Amino acid sequence: MSLFITFEGGEGSGKSTQARLLLKRLEHENVPAVLTHEPGGTTLGDEMRKLLKKRRDSSISPWAELFLFAASRVQLVAELIGPALQGGYAVICDRFIHSTVAYQAYGRGLDLATVEAISALAIGDLRPDLTILLDMPFELGLERKRTLRDRFETEDLSFHRRVRDGYRAMAASDPDRWLVIDASLGRTEVADKIWDRVGTLLPTSR
Q1: All structural domains of the chain with their residue ranges
Q2: Using an 8 Å Cβ cutoff, are 24 and 57 in contact?
Q3: Spatial CA neighbour of 2 closest among 97, 77, 68, 82
Q4: Residues 131-156: pLDDT tens digits?
């Protein structure tokens, strides 16, 4: 069976850690699975990741930022996510289209409908079966990071507040497809809550 699960959340919320733990759990249950991330996951995407994440003296236009993320996503879907799903894999992606809506629409202030339309064009009919939002106060997430390293982590607090508000608004609008977890809980507790939900999406005969 194919299954597409995405992880979302603000800086320092533990997405990458939980995505890796879920991958290990699926593999332990003999579910073929692959883990990827955004931006990146392909040769082209990795180059765009450098452009998007690196702290620099010159700014990147929010619209240019939006299209770079979209281009990276098109390549990731075509090269990795689409073929893996067609091959019956469970695909875990650390960030996907909801990051773009949260960061570029809510965070940057770009028109929401336009951001959603461009994001939809980038993925066609593909939609996550489950989006896991690791939610926590943005101040705590940034404190977890300790050393701020990229362009997004160094944005002012109002930006991170808008991003969190955006995520919570999206999750509230589609509760059946979203799982919201308090990311300030312990790592094991968060992982168990994730598995409780993911397990319901797997065949009972596995």
Answers
A1: 3-201
A2: no
A3: 82
A4: 999 999 988 877 877 666 788 888 88
- Helices and strands in the chain, H and E counts: 9, 5
pLDDT exceeds 60 at position 177? yes
Closest CA to 124 of 179, 91, 164, 77: 77
Chain segment 69-120, per-residue pLDDT in tens: 999 999 999 999 999 999 999 999 999 999 999 999 999 999 999 999 999 9
**Cβ neighbours of residue 114 closer than 8 Å, sequence gap 6 or more:** none
Instruction: Compute the residue count for the chain.
Output: 206
Question: What is the distance between the alpha carbons of residues 61 and 40, in angstroms, rounded to a whole number?
Answer: 20
Taking a C-beta distance cutoff of 8 angstroms, is the pair 20, 161 a contact?
no
pTM, entire model:
0.93
User: How far is Cα 127 from Cα 122, in angstroms, rounded to an integer?
Assistant: 11
Q: How much of the chain is helix, strand and coil, in % rounded to 5?
A: 55, 15, 30
Q: Which fold has domain 3-201?
A: Rossmann fold (3.40.50)
